Amino acid sequence: MTSGERVDPALPVTISYIAESAGVSIPTVSKVINGRAGVAADTRARVEALITRYGYRKPAPINRSRVMEVVFDELADMWGVAIIRGVERVARAHRVGVVLTEFGPQRNTIRYWIDDAVARRPACVVTVAQLSDEQRGQLRARGIPFVVFDPTVELPADVPFVGATNWAGGRSAARHLIELGHRRIAVIGGPETALCCQARLDGFRSATAAAGLAVDPGLVVQESFTQEGGHAAALDLLSRPHRPTAIFAGNDLQALGVYRAARALGLRIPADLSVVGFDDLPIAALLDPALTTVRQPLTEMAAAATELALTLGRGVEPPQMGLELATTLTVRESTAPPGS
């Protein structure tokens, strides 16, 4: 509709009406209303003219409960516990309760969750489960602010998220092993489509290229982020005639599987095989030998995601919509120069 004549002047003006009249998307109108960048000057002028013409006013904030929600696909290991700890820390400081939702391995409950969330009227949502564009749109349409934790895919610029410097983490792991003298290094990655896995592998390759080394494609494998996945991949890698002298595992659970495989094959860590993990879960320091790993600050990431979500829940525009917290290499006893 571009004529400028409203069908029913008695009805309130909505963002969708402005968008339809201007011939643009709802997110574009939202950016103009909130004074955000990313809109062409002529489009911004057209939208602002319609806002003035129709007398549009931002709706009053929704009276939400003093409860926020954290959404997981599945809570099966210590990774989730570290995230919950960070959420609880911030929520407690703000006197906000926390509702924990788990979709389950098959994501069977996701179709009902958004309607249930609307009924609960949470102050905000931190979603560890990776929602689709449509599902994020449903939350927005219902006025529920959300933050994506550790996104596994590229997100639109207006989707708030908190992640980690996965590329730098993969690079630091490779540099550590190369400096110890390793040249035949295997990588056990997670799901190939996951953004974090690709970033870690890209960082690893950057370090090897800088050292003048080539990555053997046969030593790069993808497996599930589980102990079983790491065990299966390591059994294959370590049973080869020309086995690797070091393995960079996609996470600490995979590294635990590498330990099992090495011991089953009679290999000593780190005398015969160096191992580096990723995450720095509490179990990493308790392994024998203690695991060298890239620390992903999960608790701090969860705390930052909660602060960002609560800020959005108060109707405040944050200084930035995306955050990446630094990873650091924690050197322990599972890495050493390669044996003769």
What does it look like?
It is a single chain. This protein is of the alpha/beta class. It has 3 domains: 1-59, 434 Repressor (Amino-terminal Domain), CATH 1.10.260; 67-164 and 299-325, Response regulator (Rossmann fold, 3-Layer(aba) Sandwich); 166-296, 3-Layer(aba) Sandwich (Rossmann fold), CATH 3.40.50.2300. It has 12 helices and 12 strands. It has helices spanning 15-22, 26-33, 41-54, 78-93, 110-120, 133-141, 166-180, 195-210, 227-238, 252-264, 283-286, 298-313; strands at residues 67-72, 97-102, 125-127, 146-149, 161-164, 185-189, 220-222, 246-249, 274-279, 292-295, 322-325, 328-330. The strands form 2 sheets. It has a 6-stranded parallel sheet, with helices on both faces. A 6-stranded mixed sheet has the order 7-6-8-9-10-12, sandwiched between helices. The longest helix has 16 residues, at 78-93.
Which helices and strands, and how do they pair?
Layout: H1 15-22, H2 26-33, H3 41-54, E1 67-72, H4 78-93, E2 97-102, H5 110-120, E3 125-127, H6 133-141, E4 146-149, E5 161-164, H7 166-180, E6 185-189, H8 195-210, E7 220-222, H9 227-238, E8 246-249, H10 252-264, E9 274-279, H11 283-286, E10 292-295, H12 298-313, E11 322-325, E12 328-330
Parallel strand pairs: 1-2, 1-3, 3-4, 4-5, 5-11, 6-7, 6-8, 8-9, 9-10
Antiparallel strand pairs: 10-12
Topology as H/E string?
A: HHHEHEHEHEEHEHEHEHEHEHEE
- Given as residue ranges, the uncertain stretches (5+ residues, pLDDT < 50) are none
Structural class: alpha/beta
Q: What is the overall pLDDT average? A: 87
Number of helices: 12
Helix content: 40-55%
| Biggest sheet features | 6 strands, parallel
Lateral strand order in the biggest sheet: 2-1-3-4-5-11
Give the overall shape, derived from the CA principal axes: elongated
CATH class of the largest domain: Alpha Beta
Identify the CATH architecture of the largest domain: 3-Layer(aba) Sandwich
